[in-house]
Structures are given as structure tokens and as C-alpha cells.
């Protein structure tokens, strides 16, 4: 054995040497040592008369960019209202801010009709809103309205699909073309295209939708929410699965996927390629063809073997034991997988081009997920291998923070949605991106208290500041004013004796 | 696989010779022959060429007017109008960019040409000074390539910064005939002044098909999020005027408006504000009676009072940036330069670099309708927040507005980050001013986790040859319930560790790691054998710690997993006479370090100590054979910004007979050396990260008059 190894080694070396001595010249011409060295790099010329060049605009013109249009600003804004509606809605054109000025941010939910069945998820959403301190039972003082019709599942093949929504909403006196309404949706469109269409006219309503496509997403107006299952807890919610910060991330697998492989239809180009990166060691990518009624009709040569391999691994076990999880698009752009991986601290590697990520207006996803490109699947393994262990650790912790702060219950998802809308109403009293993305998260940091970071106890270290040197003594006196006697006086004396006491 | 990252040695320094010596000799000879061969080949093959190439490196020197002329036939094709639905995954050819270890896109610049129409009339003005600066900046940057075949992004040399200077149709035709145009795929155009009278569109009107647009003055309806890049309108004053940074704080005026030729409606609203709030609002306009020769752009007037512009901007806390005919205004750049907080009043405007910059930290955006309430809105902002916004505004200008170079590099970086998202620049790097970056701490263990008790800890004993004492330590430590493994780092190369049979029999696994060199840093190596998060570092002569004390220390560590939790406490003091730091081991009221002769900490710090220790500290410690514990204290305090935790009252740790040997003089040299270490480390870290605290952790019922039997940790030593 030893001798054989030695010979192989020797042969290898000798051939390498030979190649170098005799083939070096040819090698150099090829990409190996990039023969371009021989040529000069052609940079942008240093023009001899570059100092004589004119400015791109006359400085005075630049400063006097006056409004020479005939329209008054007021008129221009009025004109926008008629042009920028429906698919081009923005807060300034489709939302009536004046409704929120009198009573603040109040949310009204339509009364539920008895004959109208409501899915579990939607009743959880409504319950969350009704328990929120923004809720009002009085439509007069409401700023935001929420329908009692279940609009979560708009796949018309689904059992939960509610018919004739258009007619129903037209009957609502408060509808007002959808102004100041918020519509929740988890599933839109159906086989085979899965379009973004909800099957009714949402008008000027804000859409909070899962699997949002960047193209139909109205930036600054709509909200992308995560897809959550009907078992998602109403409140509280399970915590993340990260119990320890290990370095290097000692998990059994580097990258895993276990799921359906679509043989035809939308999303199949991505799902159909996933098996290519499977290496059976640290990268496990398992697919099955079994889904739908007539999968056998489309089945190809891989299917049978894949289906057998598929059964060998348990999805939960893979989640627990992998550093990265592939989260590819399904038929729609979002999937349950996303939240599952987030909770499991398995860093999501997204393969879902054009997906407007959940709450991306507030959340900086670049700190918690790897946004891959469907077209570059084969680069994913090397890309994730190259991520430094300390960044992996930071990613893992961020997944847990985000999960816990915004996703672990329906309450959190709904409240995050409401807070994002509230932030838009008064931009000067809103949370910066920093607040949303640092512990303890946007739901616990109320801009009504302060917008200054130093006023919160959470950010001293990250912000390089320190708490104030003094304290205020706040004494609760229960005893009667008449007996304002010794103990309390002595307490005041003792407290004010401290050099750090600012006021009592 | 080519990784940008360095490969870490996961096995550690425990390089027990695995080959027999005979073989080793054989291999070494072979390797040296190969190495010599390689060097010889390299010299022979590449030496002369490298000299040649360096002499070839020249820069062209000619006039901008001395460029090839291209005639555009009247019927040459025009690109489609810009496609509003374009996104990176639909209109951008990512295959051109490829996977490369540096994660950098390659940018190609087309050479400069002069375009004329059929009649020989020029299609556009000669290249502007700013566009030339922009292209020079690309050419000098890491992104640049002169090889059109390797390029990922193409930048035409056709200057479209200002739409007013262009002939729209002909410019479009000129774009369409570029050699790699291909419907504009992967082409990047820079435009700062879009639109023209009377409508003033918010994006460049030149048909450009799929080309990316870096535009100043996008509105939310023309900006393709995640595809276009919103850039500032460059203010040429940035280069001309040197405004020194002014410290944050209150200014003479509260609100200032400096723009000329505002729309009368805005003008009257501003005047109403001034009438209401008097002196604190200053509204400036063009000067009407300036003497000749004074540039109008550098003066502003209020009634008959003349002010220097942009200097006057530094006199105000807030500066109004109103939309004009266009949304993007060059005055924004001047305002930021002055460290004045911009109040942006331009509905639907996409702020510059909004994809990465957190404008809420540097500006106030007020809807046009709310202009009358501007004063009260601004008044509601806390003073300290205003000061931060002032600093932030100035930082944005310095980093992203001050020159065409800054603007173009930020633009390319944004596009680069979209293509290599896993190597993207973080929010903090984009947004934190250097002062914050410097003073802030981002704790690598920021998630407040309480590790499960069941995990236990790994004890690491560093030893050289004190076998008897070592065995006593092992026996003592093994009594701690939460111990899960014991690792002995055998640092003596000249002596083999005792035979297996001689070691104490303990209930947990005991591993001996032999090291290749006698280095102190070996105790802090992240050995694969450490499977727990918690590490107990303990010297081979610390024999007096009781099992209760150690178990209690571990419990405290679980609550504070990002701290050093230890027993012997020390302090650093500033010596006013010598003007340097001093090490203190006497009993004091305060503590700022715990010695790693007996301390719990997270395994992550082993990793940091081995791979991320700043400067030459690690080698310095190994060379001096001292202060590895102080280095660890510095490291942990520096990355977490937190103090150490001293547990239990014990102050003496060495056995009495040992201290007797150390004479007074020896003790003094020791103190001097340790003080030197502190000074050395403080200079390498550039700061003193250690935090002084006045408290320690004891069990709840410690010293209480209470039956010992009912206490969880009855056996806590006193001294």
C-alpha cells in the first residue's frame, strides 16, 4: 500500500515537472496565467484638455431648477390621484391620510356575517387585529379597514374560495373604492399560471399578500407577508431551535433540500434541477415526483430511484442538522419552507427569483438569508462553502431574532404589518431600518416613546454611546399627605444625597 | 473550490508526527526538488515578460476632440423605450458576470467617439467634465476591465448626464449601434438631469430598452426597484468650496431655505412659516443687485442682506430641499456638505442610494401637503437625535456625494452586491459614520441564548511538566457535575505524557493533546475535541477551587455566555506619573480582568483568539511567554463591549508554599512585565477596551445565616 502510494505520488510529480518545463509556454497562453500580461491595460485616456471640459450643467441652471411647469403643485398632486391608481397606487395617491389625523392610527374590522364561513387562519388574523390596541369598533374613527370576507385563499379550485366577492364589497357602504382598506391574501391564482390575480377588484386597497412578485408589488404601498400554515399559533409561538452558538457550525450537513420535483408547469425549471447538486455527503438534495393525482403520467427515468432515496431521510431531521437550507420557489414564489427554515436556524438559501421578501420594507434580509439566483443553482454549493464561520454564526443568530420578533405567531405577523403601515403615516416618527433589524426588534421599540436611539436601553453598545450618568428618583407614596412624616423625608434625603441623583 | 476566505486549519497545532522519520526525510527531499524546479521554471518563463508588461503600461494622451467620428444614418435603429417591468432576473444577463473568488463585477467602458448625423452635425456636446471624471474613476477602480469579452457591465462613453444637452432620437441611435448593445442588456447609463420642459419626466427620455439606469430624480413610478439605481444630482460646488465640518449642535437658524426660483406656491407657504416663527426661519433667494463679477451661484439674499452660499447653510439646523421642475436637486448635496439636516419636500421622490442608505437617520421627509406643519414636526425631534442626523448628513456627503468618483463607486457597489449577495456590504458599513464604526461594538454573540445546562463544559488544562499537581487538578475538576470532557494540552515536546494507566480515573472522557511547540496560545486553540460551548480554562496548579465554586461559575456563565467568567480578578489603572497603564493585583474595590488560570468562556473566543487577534499580539505573547490571559481579556472586552464577571470571594489561588518561593523582586518584575503587556495591547487595539466593574457574583444564600444543607452551593471558599 505504502509503496503504491509513493509511486503514484512520484509519477504525478514528474509529469507535473515535465509539463512545466516543456509546456510552460503554451500554458501561459491559455487562461492559466492569463497571457494578457504581455499587453498594456487600456485605461480610460487622460485627455490633455480635460481641465477645459464644460460642466454637465450650467451651475446657475442647476441651482435654479425652478418649477416652470404651468401646473401648481396642488394641481399636480390632484392630477396624480386620477392617474396613479389601482396597479400604480402609492400611499400619496390611494390612501386618505386625513382619516388618520383626528384619532390616530385606528383599525376597524367589518362585522362578521353569520352565513359566511371563515378559515382558521383568517379568523386568527381578525382576532389579532381585534386584540391589538389599534382596534376600534367604530368605523367613524377608523383609519384602516379590514374586510370580514375571507380573502386568504383565492385559488378558485380551493374549497375555501369565497365566490362573488366583487358583489359583496360593492354592497359595503364603507368600501369607498377600497381606500384605506387592507386585504390579506396567502394564495392567489391557480393551476397552471398561478397569477397574482385575486379574482376580484381590490381597487385602491393595500394588499398584504404572501408570495408577492416584485413586478406586481406596489412599492411603499403593498406589504409582502410570509406564507404561514393554518396551525401557526395565534400568539406566543414556539421559539427558534438554536440553543447554542457553535463555531465552526458543526452540523452534519452543509446544505439540504427535500421536496417535490415538478416535472411540468410553472416553477418546474428550478425544482427539476435541484437534484444536480446532491452529493450524498454534506449536500443532500432529495426530490420526489409523487404529487398530484396523475404524477405517473409525466414520470421520467429518475423518478423511481429518487422516490426511494426520498424516503430515506426525514425532513425534520434534515432541518435540524443542516447549516443551510435551500428554499426554492414552488408553484408560487413563497413556501412554508421559508418560515420552517428560519425557525430551525437553518440559513435559507432562496431560489425564488422576483420574490418580494416578507416585510422587506422593514427587514434587511441580507443579514439572515442567502438570496440565490434560480439561474445560478450550480454556484450555490461553492458560494455557501466560502462563507466564513463567523458570518454563518451571525446569520444563524439573525434568523432566530427575526423569527422570534416578527414571525413566530399570527399576532406578530399581523402586528408587524400594522406597524409598517403606521410608520408610513408619519415618516418623521417612524422606525429607522436599524431599529427594525436589531434586537429587540421593531415591535418592541415604539417611536411614540422616542425616535432617538440613545433613549432606549438596547443600543448603547452598537451605537457607541453610554447611558446617562444620572438617575431620576421616582417615589411612590401611599401614605396620606397629612402624615407626610419621617420615613418618606428620610428616603428623599437619602436619595438626594447620592451624587448621581438628578431629580426626585 | 476557490474561496476568497483563508482556509482554516481545523486540526490545530497538535501535529503529532504521523509519518515515520525515514519517510519524512524522503518526502521533504522530494518536495524541495519540486519547489526548486518550480522556482526555476517561474524565473525562466515569466521573468522577462513581466518586465516587458510593466514598461508597456501607458496612458493615452490626446485631446477629446481627437476621436473617431461615427456617422449615424437617419434610418439606423432606435432601441425600444425603457421596459418598466425589468428586474435583475428578467433583463440582466447574470451569466456574463460569472463566479469569481473576488466577487467583483467587471466593467467595460466603450471608447470615446464623436457621433454625427447624416448632415455631419454633432449629435451631442463633447463629454462633460463630470462624465469624464466618472469614467476615469471606473477606469481606476477594481471593477474595470479593458477586455470586452470578460465584462459583466458595459458603460457607454456617450454622455447622457443632462438630458437637455442631447438630441434624444440620435443619442438613442448611437446607443443602439454599440458593439455589445444587445437590446441594452447589462448596459449602465448615468443620468442626473432627466426630462425636459414642459413635463419634466422623472427618468431619462432616451429610449434605452433593457439598459440599467443610474438616475438622479426618479419618482416612485419610474424607478424600477432592485434594477435601477437612484443617484444624487452632483453639485459642482462640492469640488470648489471647502466647508470644514462643523461640530453638531444648535445653529443660529432653525429652518433655512436657500433655493432660488421656487414655485410661487411653495414660496408663499415658506413665507407664511417665517411670518409665524420669526427670526428662526430664514428664507433666501436670488440676489438682484449684485455687482458685476460676483457669481450669482455663490450669493443668496434676504431682503437687502447678502449671504455667502453655501457657507450660510452651516448656520442652520434644518435646510429645506424642495422639488423644482425635477425631483432631484443639487442643493441636497450642498446641504449635506454643510452638515445641515435636509428636510425633503418632494412627494414620490426616490432618495439617492435609497437601496442601501437609511435616510431616516440623516433627513426628515415631509409630504408636500404637510408643509404648513413643518415647524412643529421639526420641533418634535429630540435635540440629541438632531445632532446625530447632522453628523450622519455630513457622513453621507463625504462617502457618497462629494465627487463623481464617490457617486459612481457607490453605484457600482450596489450593482455588485445584487450579483454577489452573499458577499454584499452590510447595512452598518454603508450607514455608520467612521466615528460610530470606531466606537460601536457588534457583539458576535448578540442573541441572548441561555445554553442548556445539560451541555456542560469542557475543561482545558495547560500543562508542561507538573504532573503531580496536574493530577490533583484533574481529580478536583472531575468532581464538578457539569463537566463533560477534560482536555489536557501537553505543551512539553521533550517529554512524553505519563502512560495511560497512570492518569487518574475520572467519569468523563479525558483527552491529551500534544502540541508541536511550547506556545501559550495553544491553550486557546479551538480544538475539534471541544464539543461544548463553555470552556473552562484552568492552570495545572489551581488546586484549591472546590467543586461547588466551579459548578456555580458555570451556572453564572450560562446566564452570560458572552463574558469571561472567572475567579482570580485583576485591575488595570492609569498611572498619572508615568502616563501609562499599570497592572494591579492587590485587593481593590474594582475588577476589570479575570485571569484565565481559572475562567469560563465561550469557545468562540478561542476561535477569535487564534484567527482574529488584532495585530501581532498572538505572536508577541508566544514570544514573551506571558500575558496570554490579558490578551484574552482585551479580545473579549473589545468584541463584546462588556465587562468580565468575577465569581465568588476567593482571592488567593496559589498554594501557600508556592508563593513563598517567589521573592519580592521576582514579583516586581512580574508586575512590570504585566503592565507592559497592558500598554502594548492598548496600543495595538488603539483603545482601552477593558471595562471596570465594582460587583461580583456570589450564590444567593452565600454567607446568610441559614442551614448549610439547604444551600445549593455550600462549599464556597472564603479566601
UniProtKB/TrEMBL annotation, chain A:
GO terms for biological process: heparan sulfate proteoglycan biosynthetic process. Pfam families: Exostosin_GT47 (PF03016). Belongs to the glycosyltransferase 47 family. This is EXT1C protein. GO terms for molecular function: acetylglucosaminyltransferase activity; glucuronosyltransferase activity. InterPro entries: Exostosin, Exostosin_GT47. It comes from the Eukaryota. It comes from Smithornis capensis. One of its GO terms (cellular component) is Golgi apparatus. Residues 104-384 form the Exostosin GT47 domain.
Automatic annotation (TrEMBL), chain B:
InterPro entries: Exostosin, Exostosin_GT47, GT64_dom, Nucleotide-diphossugar_trans. It catalyses: 3-O-{[(1->4)-beta-D-GlcA-(1->4)-alpha-D-GlcNAc](n)-(1->4)-beta-D-GlcA-(1->3)-beta-D-Gal-(1->3)-beta-D-Gal-(1->4)-beta-D-Xyl}-L-seryl-[protein] + UDP-N-acetyl-alpha-D-glucosamine = 3-O-{alpha-D-GlcNAc-[(1->4)-beta-D-GlcA-(1->4)-alpha-D-GlcNAc](n)-(1->4)-beta-D-GlcA-(1->3)-beta-D-Gal-(1->3)-beta-D-Gal-(1->4)-beta-D-Xyl}-L-seryl-[protein] + UDP + H(+). It is an enzyme of class 2 (transferase). Pathway: Protein modification; protein glycosylation. One of its GO terms (molecular function) is metal ion binding. GO terms for cellular component: endoplasmic reticulum membrane; Golgi apparatus. Residues 102-381 form the Exostosin GT47 domain. It is found in: Endoplasmic reticulum membrane; Golgi apparatus, cis-Golgi network membrane. Its cofactor is Mn(2+). Residues 457-702 form the Glycosyl transferase domain. Gene3D superfamilies: Spore Coat Polysaccharide Biosynthesis Protein SpsA, Chain A. Its EC number is 2.4.1.224. GO terms for biological process: heparan sulfate proteoglycan biosynthetic process. It is a single-pass type II membrane protein. The chain crosses the membrane at residues 25-47. Keywords: Disulfide bond, Endoplasmic reticulum, Glycoprotein, Glycosyltransferase, Golgi apparatus, Manganese, Membrane, Metal-binding, Signal-anchor, Transferase, Transmembrane, Transmembrane helix. Belongs to the glycosyltransferase 47 family. Part of the heparan sulfate polymerase, a dimeric complex composed of EXT1 and EXT2. Could also form homooligomeric complexes. Interacts with NDST1. Interacts with GALNT5. Glycosyltransferase forming with EXT1 the heterodimeric heparan sulfate polymerase which catalyzes the elongation of the heparan sulfate glycan backbone. Glycan backbone extension consists in the alternating transfer of (1->4)-beta-D-GlcA and (1->4)-alpha-D-GlcNAc residues from their respective UDP-sugar donors. This is Exostosin-2. It comes from Smithornis capensis.
Amino acid at each position: 500500500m505504502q509503496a503504491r502510494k509513493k509511486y503514484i505520488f512520484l509519477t504525478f510529480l514528474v509529469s507535473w515537472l515535465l509539463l512545466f518545463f516543456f509546456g510552460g509556454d503554451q500554458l501561459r497562453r491559455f487562461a492559466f496565467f492569463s497571457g494578457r500580461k504581455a499587453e498594456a491595460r487600456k485605461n480610460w485616456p487622460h485627455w490633455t484638455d480635460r481641465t477645459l471640459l464644460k460642466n454637465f450643467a450650467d451651475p446657475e441652471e442647476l441651482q435654479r431648477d425652478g418649477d416652470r411647469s404651468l401646473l401648481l403643485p396642488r394641481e399636480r398632486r390632484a392630477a396624480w390621484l386620477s392617474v396613479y391608481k389601482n396597479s400604480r397606487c402609492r400611499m400619496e395617491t390611494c390612501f386618505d391620510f386625513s382619516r388618520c389625523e383626528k384619532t390616530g392610527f385606528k383599525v376597524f374590522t367589518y362585522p362578521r356575517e353569520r352565513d359566511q364561513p371563515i378559515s382558521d387562519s383568517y379568523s386568527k388574523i381578525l382576532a389579532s387585529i381585534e386584540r391589538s390596541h389599534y382596534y376600534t369598533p367604530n368605523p367613524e374613527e377608523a383609519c384602516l379597514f379590514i374586510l370580514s370576507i375571507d380573502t386568504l385563499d383565492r385559488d378558485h379550485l380551493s374549497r375555501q374560495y369565497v365566490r362573488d366577492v366583487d358583489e359583496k364589497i360593492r354592497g359595503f357602504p364603507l368600501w369607498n373604492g377600497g381606500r384605506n382598506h387592507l386585504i390579506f391574501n396567502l394564495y392567489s391564482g391557480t393551476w397552471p399560471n398561478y397569477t397574482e390575480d385575486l379574482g376580484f377588484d381590490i381597487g385602491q386597497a393595500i394588499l398584504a399578500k404572501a408570495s408577492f412578485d416584485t413586478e406586481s408589488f406596489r412599492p411603499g404601498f403593498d406589504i409582502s407577508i410570509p406564507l404561514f400554515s393554518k396551525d401557526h399559533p395565534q400568539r406566543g409561538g414556539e421559539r427558534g431551535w438554536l440553543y447554542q452558538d457553535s463555531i465552526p457550525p458543526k452540523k452534519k450537513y452543509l446544505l439540504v433540500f427535500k421536496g417535490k420535483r415538478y416535472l411540468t408547469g410553472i416553477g418546474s425549471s428550478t425544482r427539476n434541477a435541484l437534484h444536480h447538486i446532491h452529493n450524498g455527503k454534506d449536500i443532500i438534495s432529495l426530490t420526489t415526483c409523487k404529487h398530484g393525482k396523475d404524477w405517473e403520467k409525466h414520470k421520467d427515468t429518475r423518478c423511481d430511484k429518487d422516490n426511494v432515496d426520498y424516503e430515506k431521510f426525514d425532513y425534520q431531521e434534515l432541518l435540524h442538522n443542516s447549516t443551510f437550507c435551500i428554499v426554492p420557489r414552488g408553484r408560487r414564489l413563497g413556501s412554508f419552507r421559508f418560515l420552517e427554515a428560519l425557525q430551525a436556524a437553518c440559513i435559507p438559501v432562496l431560489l425564488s427569483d422576483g420574490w418580494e421578501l416578507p416585510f422587506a420594507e422593514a427587514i434587511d434580509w441580507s443579514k439572515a438569508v442567502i438570496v440565490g439566483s434560480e439561474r445560478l443553482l450550480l454556484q450555490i454549493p461553492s458560494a455557501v462553502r466560502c462563507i466564513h464561520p463567523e458570518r454563518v454564526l451571525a446569520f444563524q443568530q439573525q434568523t432566530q431574532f427575526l423569527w422570534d420578533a416578527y414571525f413566530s405567531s399570527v399576532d406578530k405577523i399581523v402586528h408587524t404589518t400594522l406597524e409598517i403601515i403606521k410608520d408610513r403615516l408619519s415618516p418623521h416618527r417612524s422606525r429607522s431600518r436599524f431599529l427594525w433589524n436589531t434586537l429587540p426588534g421593531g415591535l418592541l421599540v415604539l417611536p411614540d416613546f422616542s425616535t432617538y436611539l440613545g433613549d432606549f436601553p438596547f443600543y448603547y453598545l452598537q451605537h457607541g454611546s453610554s447611558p446617562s450618568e444620572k438617575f431620576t428618583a421616582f417615589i411612590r407614596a401611599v401614605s396620606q399627605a397629612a402624615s407626610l412624616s419621617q420615613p418618606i423625608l428620610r428616603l428623599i434625603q437619602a436619595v438626594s444625597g447620592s451624587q448621581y441623583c438628578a431629580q426626585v | 473550490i476557490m474561496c476568497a476566505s483563508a482556509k482554516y486549519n481545523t486540526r490545530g497545532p497538535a501535529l503529532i508526527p504521523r509519518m515515520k522519520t525515514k519517510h519524512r526525510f524522503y518526502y521533504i527531499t522530494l518536495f524541495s526538488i519540486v519547489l526548486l524546479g518550480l522556482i526555476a521554471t517561474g524565473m525562466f518563463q515569466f521573468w522577462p515578460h513581466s518586465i516587458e508588461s510593466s514598461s508597456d503600461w501607458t496612458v493615452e494622451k490626446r485631446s477629446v476632440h481627437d476621436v473617431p467620428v461615427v456617422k449615424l444614418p437617419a434610418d439606423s435603429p432606435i432601441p425600444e423605450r425603457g421596459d418598466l417591468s425589468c428586474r435583475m432576473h428578467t433583463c440582466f444577463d447574470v451569466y456574463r458576470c460569472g463566479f469569481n473568488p473576488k466577487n467583483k463585477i467587471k466593467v467595460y467602458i466603450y471608447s470615446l467617439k464623436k457621433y454625427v448625423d447624416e448632415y455631419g452635425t454633432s449629435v451631442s456636446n463633447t463629454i462633460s467634465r463630470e462624465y469624464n471624471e466618472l469614467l476615469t474613476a471606473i477606469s481606476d477602480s477594481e471593477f474595470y476591465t479593458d477586455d470586452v469579452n470578460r465584462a459583466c457591465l458595459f458603460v457607454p462613453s456617450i454622455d447622457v448626464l443632462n438630458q437637455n444637452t442631447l438630441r434624444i432620437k440620435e443619442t438613442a441611435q448611437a446607443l443602439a449601434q454599440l458593439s455589445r448593445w444587445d437590446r441594452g442588456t447589462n448596459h449602465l447609463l448615468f443620468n442626473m438631469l432627466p426630462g425636459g420642459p414642459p413635463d419634466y419626466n422623472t427618468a431619462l427620455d432616451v429610449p434605452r430598452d433593457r439598459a440599467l439606469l443610474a438616475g438622479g430624480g426618479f419618482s416612485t413610478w419610474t424607478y424600477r426597484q432592485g434594477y435601477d439605481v437612484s443617484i444624487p444630482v452632483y453639485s459642482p460646488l462640492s469640488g470648489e468650496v471647502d466647508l470644514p465640518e462643523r461640530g453638531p449642535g444648535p445653529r443660529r437658524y432653525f429652518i433655512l431655505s436657500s433655493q432660488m426660483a421656487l414655485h410661487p406656491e411653495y414660496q408663499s407657504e415658506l413665507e407664511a412659516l417665517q411670518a409665524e416663527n420669526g427670526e428662526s426661519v430664514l428664507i433666501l433667494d436670488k440676489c438682484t443687485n449684485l455687482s458685476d463679477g460676483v457669481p450669482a451661484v455663490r450669493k443668496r439674499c434676504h431682503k437687502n442682506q447678502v449671504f455667502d452660499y453655501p457657507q450660510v447653510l452651516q448656520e442652520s439646523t434644518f435646510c429645506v430641499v424642495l422639488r423644482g421642475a425635477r425631483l432631484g436637486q443639487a442643493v441636497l448635496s450642498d446641504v449635506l456638505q454643510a452638515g445641515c439636516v435636509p428636510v425633503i419636500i418632494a412627494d414620490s421622490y426616490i432618495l439617492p442610494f435609497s437601496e442601501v442608505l437609511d435616510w431616516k437617520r440623516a433627513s426628515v421627509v415631509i409630504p408636500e401637503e404637510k408643509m404648513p406643519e413643518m415647524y412643529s414636526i421639526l420641533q418634535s425631534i429630540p435635540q440629541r437625535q438632531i445632532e446625530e442626523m447632522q453628523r450622519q448628513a455630513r457622513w453621507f456627503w463625504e462617502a457618497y456625494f462629494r465627487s463623481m468618483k464617490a457617486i459612481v463607486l457607490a453605484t457600482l457597489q450596489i450593482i455588485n452586491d445584487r450579483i454577489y449577495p452573499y458577499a454584499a456590504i452590510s447595512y452598518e458599513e454603508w450607514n455608520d459614520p467612521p466615528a460610530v464604526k470606531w466606537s460601536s461594538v457588534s457583539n458576535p454573540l448578540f442573541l441572548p441564548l441561555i445554553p442548556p445546562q445539560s451541555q456542560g463544559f469542557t475543561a482545558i488544562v495547560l500543562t508542561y511538566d507538573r504532573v503531580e499537581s496536574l493530577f490533583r487538578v484533574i481529580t478536583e475538576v472531575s468532581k464538578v457535575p457539569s463537566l463533560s470532557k477534560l482536555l489536557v494540552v501537553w505543551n512539553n515536546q521533550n517529554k512524553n505524557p505519563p502512560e495511560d494507566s497512570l492518569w487518574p480515573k475520572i467519569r468523563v472522557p479525558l483527552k491529551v493533546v500534544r502540541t508541536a511547540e511550547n506556545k501559550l496560545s495553544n491553550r486557546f486553540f479551538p480544538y475539534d475535541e471541544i464539543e461544548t460551548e463553555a470552556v473552562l480554562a484552568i492552570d495545572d496548579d489551581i488546586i484549591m477551587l472546590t467543586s461547588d465554586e466551579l459548578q456555580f461559575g458555570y451556572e453564572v456563565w450560562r446566564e452570560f455566555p458572552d463574558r469571561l467568567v472567572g475567579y482570580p480578578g485583576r485591575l488595570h489603572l492609569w498611572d498619572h506619573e508615568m502616563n501609562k497603564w499599570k497592572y494591579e493585583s492587590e485587593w481593590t474595590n474594582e475588577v476589570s480582568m479575570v485571569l484565565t488560570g481559572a475562567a469560563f468562556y465561550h469557545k468562540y473566543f478561542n476561535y477569535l483568539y487564534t484567527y482574529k487577534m488584532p495585530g501581532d499580539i498572538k505572536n508577541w505573547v508566544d514570544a514573551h511567554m506571558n500575558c496570554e490571559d490579558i490578551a484574552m481579556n482585551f479580545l473579549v472586552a473589545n468584541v463584546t463591549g462588556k465587562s468580565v464577571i468575577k465569581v465568588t470571594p476567593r482571592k488567593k489561588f496559589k498554594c501557600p508554599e508556592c508563593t513563598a518561593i517567589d521573592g519580592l523582586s521576582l514579583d516586581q518584575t512580574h508586575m512590570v512585565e504585566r503592565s507592559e503587556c497592558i500598554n502594548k495591547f492598548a496600543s495595538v487595539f488603539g483603545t482601552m477596551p477593558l471595562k471596570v466593574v465594582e460587583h461580583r457574583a456570589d450564590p444567593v444564600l452565600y454567607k446568610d445565616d441559614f442551614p448549610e444543607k439547604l444551600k445549593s452551593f455550600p462549599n464556597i471558599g472564603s479566601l
